[in-house]
C-alpha cells in the first residue's frame, strides 16, 4: 500500500522528502482546497475508507490524516 | 394535540379562490350553477357568491358567451376566472380561447395583459361517459400565449392560480378524482417516498425513494395521473425497479431544463397520461425529451389511454383509461429490455447459428445497461482479424475498446453515434470465403444490403485511421444545455473589481487553527453574498417574464465545482442564517460529491444566485454565464500577488478579482458595482460575518 507521505507528495507534486507530519493546509501552499479534496478521494480509494465532510475538513495535515486512518484501523 | 390533516384538493382550490377574491378587488368568476348553496358541480366555488355577490356571476348555459365576457373583462382591465362545468364543454369556448383571449395579448401592436383563467374539471374513472370524462388538455396545446396548468397533489393551487392570473391567459385543468384526495404535506408522499419542488412552487414535483438510489426509471405525468403513477412506482419498487416521479405544475409551455439532468441520467424514461392516444401532451413531452437528450437516452416510453371514446360502463371504462397496472407492466417490460436481460432468442456473441460470427455488446461494467458507439476501427465490409481492436464504446465511466471476437468481413449493425444495449447485436463477422458480391439475397434475415467490395486485408498502422473526435460525456452535455439556454435568453453585462484578501486569509487561518477544521475563502464569499441579500434583494431571484422578477425569500447560493468529473452547481441552502462552519461542511460534502459524481437533482436546483469559484493561482478574471432564470452570477478569481503602497511604502499583498455577470434586463451597472463593493467590504472586515 502506498505510504501516506508518498500519496500526498504524488498529488501535490512535491518531493516525498519534503512531506512530513506537519505538511498540511496551513504549511504548504500547494495544498489547496481542490488538492485537499483529491487527497481525501485518493485516501478513500487507497485505504478503503469513507470520510464524512467534517472529517475531511478536520484532517488538515498528514499527521491528522494518519491519526484518522489509525483510528479507523487502516494502518495496522 | 392531533395535527389537522392536509386539505383535500377541492378544499385547497376553494381556499385559494377565497384568498384570491380577498386580495384582488377586480377579480370576477363566471360559470354555471356556481352560486350558493349549490357552489358549482364539484363544490369548488362554495361560499364565494355569498361573500362576493357582485363579482361571482352564475350564468346561462353558454360556454362561448361566458368566455367571451371574461375576455371583455380582461380587456377592460379586470381579471376573470371561468368555470367550465365539465372540461368537455370547453370545446364550446374554443373559438374565444383560440381567437380572442390568446390572440389579444400580442395582436394590437403592444403587449396586452389578459388575466383570464379558464378552469376545466377533466378526466374519467367516474363512469360519467364519453362526453363528461375526457382529458381535453391536448386540444389546447401549442396555442401561442396560452399557458396550461394542472392541479396535482404536490402543488398549492393558490400558487398555480396566482401565477396563471399574473401571466395569463391560462387554463387550469382539474382532475375530478383528484378533488377528493388530500394534498401531500411536509415533503412526504408515503412510507417509501418523499418529494421536493424543483424550480419553485409552480415548478416540478420530484418524488424519489427515501432510501435513495439512482433511478432505473424516470416517470413523468401530469397531476391528475399522479396517484396512479405513485401506485405504479410502488408496484415497480416491489419488483426491484427504482422509479423517480416528475410532475409539472405547468404543462405548457413546459420547462424541461430543471429536470433534464435527472432525465438524462436514467436508463429509461416514461411519460404517462390519461388522454387518449394521438396528438397528446405526453407525445409532445416525449418528442421534446428525445430532441433535447438525443443520444443520451433511448426514446421515451409513452403511455396514454386507448384510442376510444370513454365508455360509461365502469368495467369498459377501466379497459380504456390508463391505470397503475398498465403503467407497471409496460415499464417493467421496457426496463427488462434495457438492462441486459437477454431474451433466449436474442443472438449472443460467439453464436454460429448463421453464416457469420455474431458480435454482441458485452457487459463492460455493473452500472450500465447501454453504451454509445463512438467509432469503428474498420469500415463496414472491411476484413478484420481476430483480437484486433474493432470498436470503441463509451460507458458511463470510460471509453472502452473491444476487440474482434473472430476474423472475417465486418457487417456493422449499430453505426457510430448510435446506442447499443448490453447483449444487443453490434456487428457480424462474415466468413471471408463468402464473396460480398455473391452473397445470396436475404441470406441473413434483416441484414443490410451486400457489403461493399473492399481491398485485400491490410491491417497495419493505417488501418485504424479516422478523424479525431471527442464525444461529450453526460455531465458536459447537461452543462452545454444549461449554458446554451443562458446564452440565448440572458442579455448579460459584466462588472469586476479587485479586492485585497490578506486580512480575510489571516482571519481564516486563525479560525481554522482554532476550530481544527478548515474554512476557506469560498465559504466566506458565499456567506458574504448571502449577507448582502437584504440590501440587494433584486439580485436574488429569477425573471418570470419581461416585467416581473420573482424575489427569493432566502439566500440559497449555488457554487460551481469542477473536480475533474464535470462541472456541477450544487446549492448551499439558507446561507444567511447558518453558521460558517455548517456552510463549510456542506461545501466539503459537495466537493466530495463532485469528485464522485453522485449529486441528486434536488441538490443541483433552486439557487437564487450562484458563485463561480476559480481558486487556481494566477486566474485573473472570470466572466461567468448567468444561470437562467437566475439574475446574477458572481465570479471569484485566484490569488494574485500585488504590491500596494502603505503610508507611501510599497508592500506585498494578495488580491483577487470579484466579478458579477448580471441580467441587464433586471440589474444595472450601478447596482452591480455597489453589490461588489459590499462583498469587498465584507472581505476586508471578515469579523462582520462572524456567526
Automatic annotation (TrEMBL), chain B:
<dbReference type="InterPro" id="IPR033248">
    <property type="entry name" value="Transketolase_C"/>
</dbReference>
<dbReference type="Pfam" id="PF02780">
    <property type="entry name" value="Transketolase_C"/>
</dbReference>
<dbReference type="GO" id="GO:0006086">
    <property type="term" value="P:pyruvate decarboxylation to acetyl-CoA"/>
</dbReference>
<dbReference type="InterPro" id="IPR027110">
    <property type="entry name" value="PDHB_mito-type"/>
</dbReference>
<dbReference type="GO" id="GO:0004739">
    <property type="term" value="F:pyruvate dehydrogenase (acetyl-transferring) activity"/>
</dbReference>
<feature type="compositionally biased region" description="Pro residues">
    <location>
        <begin position="448"/>
        <end position="460"/>
    </location>
</feature>
<dbReference type="InterPro" id="IPR029061">
    <property type="entry name" value="THDP-binding"/>
</dbReference>
<feature type="region of interest" description="Disordered">
    <location>
        <begin position="433"/>
        <end position="471"/>
    </location>
</feature>
<protein>
    <recommendedName>
        <fullName>Dihydrolipoamide acetyltransferase component of pyruvate dehydrogenase complex</fullName>
        <ecNumber>2.3.1.-</ecNumber>
    </recommendedName>
</protein>
<dbReference type="Pfam" id="PF02779">
    <property type="entry name" value="Transket_pyr"/>
</dbReference>
<dbReference type="InterPro" id="IPR009014">
    <property type="entry name" value="Transketo_C/PFOR_II"/>
</dbReference>
<keyword id="KW-0560">Oxidoreductase</keyword>
<keyword id="KW-0670">Pyruvate</keyword>
<dbReference type="InterPro" id="IPR000089">
    <property type="entry name" value="Biotin_lipoyl"/>
</dbReference>
<dbReference type="GO" id="GO:0000287">
    <property type="term" value="F:magnesium ion binding"/>
</dbReference>
<keyword id="KW-0012">Acyltransferase</keyword>
<feature type="domain" description="Transketolase-like pyrimidine-binding">
    <location>
        <begin position="7"/>
        <end position="181"/>
    </location>
</feature>
<dbReference type="InterPro" id="IPR011053">
    <property type="entry name" value="Single_hybrid_motif"/>
</dbReference>
<dbReference type="InterPro" id="IPR003016">
    <property type="entry name" value="2-oxoA_DH_lipoyl-BS"/>
</dbReference>
<keyword id="KW-0450">Lipoyl</keyword>
<dbReference type="InterPro" id="IPR001078">
    <property type="entry name" value="2-oxoacid_DH_actylTfrase"/>
</dbReference>
<dbReference type="GO" id="GO:0016746">
    <property type="term" value="F:acyltransferase activity"/>
</dbReference>
<dbReference type="InterPro" id="IPR005475">
    <property type="entry name" value="Transketolase-like_Pyr-bd"/>
</dbReference>
<dbReference type="InterPro" id="IPR023213">
    <property type="entry name" value="CAT-like_dom_sf"/>
</dbReference>
<dbReference type="Pfam" id="PF00364">
    <property type="entry name" value="Biotin_lipoyl"/>
</dbReference>
<keyword id="KW-0808">Transferase</keyword>
<keyword id="KW-0786">Thiamine pyrophosphate</keyword>
<comment type="similarity">
    <text>Belongs to the 2-oxoacid dehydrogenase family.</text>
</comment>
<dbReference type="Pfam" id="PF00198">
    <property type="entry name" value="2-oxoacid_dh"/>
</dbReference>
Amino acid at each position: 500500500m502506498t505510504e501516506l507521505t508518498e500519496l500526498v507528495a504524488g498529488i501535490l507534486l512535491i518531493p516525498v522528502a519534503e512531506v512530513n507530519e506537519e505538511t498540511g493546509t496551513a504549511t504548504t501552499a500547494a495544498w489547496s482546497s481542490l488538492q485537499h479534496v483529491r487527497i481525501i478521494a485518493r485516501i478513500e480509494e487507497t485505504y478503503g475508507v469513507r470520510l464524512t465532510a467534517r472529517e475531511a475538513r478536520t484532517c488538515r495535515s498528514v499527521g491528522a490524516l494518519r491519526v484518522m486512518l489509525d483510528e479507523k484501523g487502516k494502518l495496522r | 394535540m392531533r395535527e389537522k390533516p392536509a386539505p383535500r384538493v377541492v378544499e385547497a382550490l376553494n381556499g385559494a379562490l377565497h384568498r384570491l377574491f380577498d386580495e384582488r378587488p377586480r377579480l370576477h368568476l363566471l360559470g354555471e350553477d356556481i352560486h350558493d348553496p349549490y357552489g358549482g358541480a364539484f363544490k369548488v366555488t362554495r361560499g364565494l357568491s355569498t361573500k362576493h355577490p357582485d363579482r361571482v356571476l352564475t350564468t346561462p348555459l353558454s360556454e362561448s358567451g361566458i368566455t367571451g365576457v371574461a375576455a371583455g373583462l380582461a380587456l377592460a382591465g379586470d381579471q376573470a376566472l371561468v368555470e367550465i362545468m365539465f372540461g368537455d364543454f370547453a370545446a364550446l369556448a374554443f373559438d374565444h380561447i383560440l381567437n380572442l383571449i390568446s390572440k389579444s395579448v400580442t395582436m394590437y401592436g403592444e403587449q396586452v395583459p389578459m388575466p383570464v383563467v379558464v378552469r376545466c374539471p377533466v378526466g374519467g374513472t367516474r363512469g360519467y361517459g364519453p362526453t363528461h370524462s375526457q382529458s381535453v388538455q391536448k386540444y389546447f396545446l401549442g396555442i401561442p400565449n396560452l399557458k396550461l396548468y394542472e392541479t396535482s397533489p404536490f402543488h398549492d393551487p393558490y400558487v398555480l392560480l396566482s401565477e396563471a392570473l399574473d401571466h395569463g391567459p391560462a387554463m387550469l385543468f382539474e382532475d375530478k378524482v383528484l378533488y377528493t384526495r388530500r394534498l401531500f404535506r411536509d415533503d412526504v408522499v408515503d412510507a417509501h417516498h418523499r418529494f421536493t419542488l424543483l424550480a419553485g412552487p409552480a415548478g416540478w414535483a420530484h418524488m424519489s425513494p427515501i432510501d435513495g438510489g439512482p433511478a432505473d426509471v424516470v416517470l413523468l405525468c401530469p397531476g391528475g395521473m399522479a396517484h396512479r403513477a405513485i401506485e405504479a412506482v410502488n408496484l415497480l419498487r416491489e419488483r426491484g425497479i427504482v422509479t423517480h416521479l416528475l410532475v409539472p405544475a405547468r404543462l405548457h409551455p413546459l420547462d424541461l431544463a430543471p429536470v433534464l439532468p435527472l432525465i438524462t441520467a436514467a436508463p429509461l424514461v416514461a411519460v404517462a397520461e390519461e388522454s387518449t392516444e394521438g396528438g397528446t401532451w405526453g407525445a409532445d413531452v416525449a418528442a421534446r425529451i428525445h430532441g433535447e437528450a438525443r443520444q443520451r437516452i433511448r426514446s421515451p416510453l409513452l403511455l396514454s389511454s386507448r384510442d376510444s371514446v370513454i365508455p360509461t360502463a365502469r368495467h369498459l371504462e377501466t379497459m380504456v383509461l390508463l391505470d397503475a397496472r398498465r403503467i407497471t407492466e409496460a415499464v417493467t417490460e421496457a426496463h427488462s429490455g434495457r438492462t441486459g436481460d437477454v431474451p433466449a432468442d436474442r443472438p449472443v456473441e460467439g453464436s454460429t447459428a448463421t453464416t457469420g460470427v455474431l458480435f454482441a455488446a458485452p457487459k463492460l461494467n455493473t452500472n450500465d445497461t447501454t453504451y454509445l458507439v463512438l467509432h469503428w476501427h474498420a469500415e463496414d465490409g472491411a476484413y478484420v482479424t481476430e483480437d484486433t481492436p474493432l470498436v470503441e464504446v463509451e460507458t458511463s465511466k470510460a471509453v472502452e475498446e473491444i476487440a474482434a471476437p473472430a476474423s472475417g468481413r465486418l457487417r456493422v449493425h449499430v453505426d457510430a453515434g448510435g446506442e447499443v444495449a448490453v447483449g444487443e447485436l453490434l456487428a457480424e463477422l462474415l466468413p471471408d470465403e463468402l464473396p460480398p458480391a455473391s452473397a445470396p439475397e436475404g441470406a441473413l434475415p434483416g441484414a443490410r444490403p451486400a457489403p461493399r467490395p473492399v481491398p485485400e486485408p491490410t491491417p497495419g498502422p493505417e488501418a485504424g485511421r479516422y478523424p479525431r473526435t471527442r464525444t461529450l460525456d453526460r455531465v458536459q452535455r447537461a452543462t452545454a444545455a444549461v449554458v446554451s439556454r443562458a446564452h440565448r435568453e440572458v442579455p448579460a453585462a459584466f462588472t469586476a473589481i479587485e479586492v485585497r484578501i490578506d486580512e480575510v486569509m489571516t482571519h481564516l487561518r486563525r479560525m481554522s487553527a482554532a476550530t481544527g477544521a478548515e474554512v476557506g475563502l469560498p465559504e466566506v464569499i458565499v456567506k458574504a453574498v448571502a449577507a448582502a441579500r437584504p440590501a440587494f434583494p433584486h439580485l436574488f431571484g429569477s425573471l418570470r417574464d419581461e416585467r416581473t422578477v420573482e424575489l427569493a425569500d432566502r439566500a440559497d447560493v449555488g457554487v460551481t465545482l469542477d473536480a475533474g468529473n464535470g462541472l456541477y452547481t450544487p446549492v448551499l441552502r439558507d446561507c444567511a442564517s447558518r453558521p460558517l462552519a455548517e456552510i463549510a461542511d456542506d461545501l466539503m460534502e459537495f466537493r466530495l460529491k463532485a469528485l464522485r459524481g453522485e449529486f441528486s437533482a434536488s441538490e443541483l436546483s433552486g439557487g437564487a444566485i450562484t458563485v463561480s469559484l476559480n481558486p487556481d493561482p494566477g486566474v485573473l478574471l472570470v466572466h461567468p454565464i448567468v444561470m437562467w432564470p437566475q439574475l446574477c452570477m458572481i465570479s471569484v478569481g485566484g490569488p494574485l500577488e500585488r504590491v500596494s503602497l502603505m503610508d507611501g511604502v510599497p508592500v506585498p499583498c494578495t488580491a483577487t478579482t470579484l466579478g458579477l455577470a448580471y441580467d441587464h434586463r433586471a440589474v444595472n451597472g450601478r447596482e452591480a458595482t455597489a453589490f461588489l463593493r459590499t462583498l469587498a467590504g465584507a472581505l476586508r472586515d471578515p469579523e462582520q460575518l462572524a456567526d
